[in-house]
Amino acid sequence: MNPGGTVSAGLDGRRALVLGVANQRSIAWGIAEKLAAAGARLGFTYQGEKLKDWVQPLVASAKGEFLVPCDVSSDSDVAALFRHVREAWGGLDILVHSIAFAKREDLEGEYLRTSRDGFLLAQEVSAYSLTRLCQEAAPLMSAGGAIVALTYLGGERVVPGYNVMGVAKASLEMSVRYLAADLGPRGIRVNAISAGPVKTLAARGVSGFTQILEIVEKKAPLRRNVALEEIGAAACFLLSGAAGAITGEVLHVDCGFHVLGM
Ligand code: 1JT
Known about the structure:
Helices cover 40% and strands 15% of the residues. By secondary structure, the protein is α/β, with parallel strands linked by helices. The chain has one domain: NAD(P)-binding Rossmann-like Domain (Rossmann fold, 3-Layer(aba) Sandwich), CATH 3.40.50. Helix 2 links the parallel strand 2 (41-46) and strand 3 (66-69). The site of ligand 1JT has 17 residues, from helix 6.
């Protein structure tokens, strides 16, 4: 019984920092909405002033407690972000990493043509950023914590066109395992969600993306694409005590598409 109380689902008062909201279609936003519904307190970052105008009203609607600029390839931005978190909250319980970047020209044609700077850029923003954020987040998670990163099937198998992002996601997934081993003794769990394709700002305009959605709808065991709310619900599970014994895991939330061989 909880007479007159608010509805909640296990994350009451937990302080959650969410990186990667660009707009309402962002996977990070789908996760943030579910975290809020479960009673978590939210803080957000944005990347670039153009996105601030989109993100600010969303943050307000979710009763977000702060919105801080953060380019994860900048060490000073990352350091400033966590100084802000420490001053606002004095600690941290949850980190959501939903950030990736690659040059458009590296997401079409052959992986073979990838340039050195395109490769390093994708690795820096999409993979190394998790390690850098964990370096700052872990000391704030003095009572333990939980971290979730977003990945995609193209990080474990060849998905034509995903190319340099696939190599970066492989790096991210392996980082999740090494970070889980390093942070486990401190009571900090690190997991990833391998989400089925979602029509986000990042995915829009990527040649061949619409075709990927059609293939999943036709072939996936559940014969449909994943909904944003389903990724949010899975993230809430991994970030809650219900997943207390799960760390270093990559959970596929993709309507079963990953089981297929042909
Ligand atoms: C990025 C982009 C990361 C698109 C992404 C992504 N992770 C998944 N997607 C969707 C996608 C994209 C391609 C694909 C399958 C799914 C774009 C901006 C950089 C970061 O291959 C057919 C290309």
